[in-house]
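Researcher: Excuse me, tokens okay?
***
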Amino acid sequence: MTTVSSPLAGRVLPLEDVPDPVFADALVGPGGAVDPVRVPLEALAPLDGIVVSLLAHTFTVVDTAGRAVLTHLGIDTVQLAGEGFEPLVGKGDRVRRGQPLVRWDPAAVAASGRSPVCPVIALEASAADLTGLRTGRDVRAGDVLFSWN
């Protein structure tokens, strides 16, 4: 079992509430989303592993069991071309759960007309593999978001 921690403080939402059909319909994979607090913050590693993908607005960490978790910082934030996002690690870096990976400001994303909601996706998993995801609650960065069995 892999425990996936919330990379951000905020309110946990079901994927179907994400304003992007690719995430809302779980086409990328199952998981949850966090509507982050609207202050500058750092997105944290959701598990121990290696950063296998890193763009300013999204990252994927893979653990030793090969389980990959994608965190997408906001919706349509690729259109910002990295502006307002500061990666703190590099692709290929080994990271620890709770380690800051990207500095950004959800309020600035919202002010740009985009949603700051952040999907946290278990890649190559099925919904039946995930347990413990409780939506409608507030989490702190680092709190357990769900378990991957």
